[in-house]
Specification:
Shape: globular
Order of helices and strands: HEEEEHEHHEEHEEEHEEHEHHEEEHEH
Number of helices: 11
Strand content: 25-35%
Structural class: alpha+beta
Helix content: 25-40%
CATH architecture of the largest domain: 2-Layer Sandwich
Distance between the termini: 36 Å
Largest sheet: 8 strands, antiparallel
Number of strands: 17
């Protein structure tokens, strides 16, 4: 409580002076978003498991709780965060990812297309708004959510609505069986396959495709999770080459945290990393290079030199999606907007929410600038 009161006092003082505040957990996602401005608000004092009801599949934790610590507690009861939030533990100078940062950034891992995203698992939250008021929204069961679901609005808000202090999350049991299959195919063949499989009763959990070299050929990974009988039946019907579990698990974790060669090579070459979200049924995009394709075709990563922003954004819009500059190019890309410009209607909603929760505009200013 002492730490919370200190945060409240600092926020009230900052609002009076209109001094920017920068909310930060472990800093593992400092690279994500636009500018980092303001006096640091370190959420580390807000750590710890507040309550955990394994039989109810609900856990409530402080926002500063390291993500790996929460996952360890859940693993003891064979439970998990099924959306696989990234840790980005390899980011230089960063500490461990935190639960508050997980919610604020709203990023999900390889299984997102099958199990849902961070927002889908947020049942309730507590936060300090720009007036220094400690507010609670939602609860610990789905039926408590009525009206405007503020707790879920916090997911992906990048800290611009307030300081998240506590989060209640729905968790799920670890699936009893898992298998990863490999297929040699092109990107176009991958999109056709995963969309066809999606209409069948297979326990699809995650997929990823990347090129084998400069040409169109590549490798598709398909992860199955569910009941033992369902996974084994799918393996027999789908074919492919089955990978040994420990090695497959390491690869999926590396994909989640962007430690695969695709990402490492992009950083080493100083390329811009684009996160392109499109409908799963969208065809191969007319962009240079070969992407890494996740989420059954719904997420496509492109590593490109500076100067391709307009082409990437236009290709995403034409396919019915949007593009985010996840990492700027080392040269010539620092001033490129990170996010697409929202529609006028959506921009009005964003502005109204910020004015309501943070009237002085002190929280993470510029972090979500288009």
């Amino acid at each position: 409580m002492a730490a919370l009161n200190e945060f409240i006092d600092r926020i009230r003082a900052a609002a009076e002076r209109r001094t920017p505040l920068r909310i930060r957990g472990g800093g593992s996602k400092d690279f994500h978003g636009a500018s980092l401005e303001g006096e640091l608000l370190d959420t580390a004092p807000l750590a710890g498991v507040v309550s955990y009801e394994p039989s109810e599949l609900v856990v409530t934790v402080g926002a500063g709780t390291p993500l790996h610590a929460l996952e360890a507690v859940l693993a003891e009861r064979r439970q998990c965060l099924p959306f696989e939030p990234p840790h980005f533990a390899h980011v230089p100078g960063a500490g461990p990812a935190t639960v508050g940062g997980m919610v604020a950034c709203g990023l999900s891992g390889p299984s997102r297309a099958s199990v849902g995203c961070v927002r889908d698992y947020v049942l309730g939250a507590a936060m300090v708004n720009g007036r220094g008021e400690h507010l609670r929204f939602g609860g610990t069961v789905m039926k408590n959510v009525a009206g405007y679901d503020v707790s879920r609005v916090l997911a992906g808000s990048m800290g611009q609505l307030g300081l998240i202090t506590e989060v209640s999350l729905k968790v799920l049991p670890v699936p009893p069986a898992e298998a990863t299959l490999e297929f040699a195919c092109t990107q176009a063949e991958t999109l056709r396959l995963v969309n066809g499989w999606g209409g069948q009763p297979w326990p699809l959990n995650a997929s990823a495709w990347q090129a084998s070299g400069e040409g169109p050929d590549g490798v598709l990974w398909l992860r199955l999770r569910g009941a033992v009988a369902a996974v084994e039946s799918a393996c027999r019907h789908l074919g492919g080459e089955r990978r040994a579990h420990p090695h497959a698990a390491e690869d999926w974790a590396a994909l989640r945290d962007q430690r695969l060669l695709f990402f490492a090579d992009a950083k080493a070459k100083g390329l811009a990393l684009w996160r392109v979200s499109v409908p799963q049924t969208a065809p191969v995009l007319a962009l240079p290079g070969q992407p890494l394709v996740e989420w059954h075709g719904g997420l496509r990563w492109y590593a490109l030199p500076a100067g391709h922003a307009a082409a990437v954004r236009e290709a995403a819009r034409a396919a019915g999606g949007h593009a985010t500059l996840f990492l700027a190019a080392a040269a010539g890309g620092r001033d490129e907007p990170r996010f697409d410009t929202p529609s006028p209607a959506l921009a009005r909603i964003h502005q109204a929410l910020r004015e309501r929760f943070d009237p002085a505009g002190v929280f993470n200013p510029g972090r979500l600038a288009a």
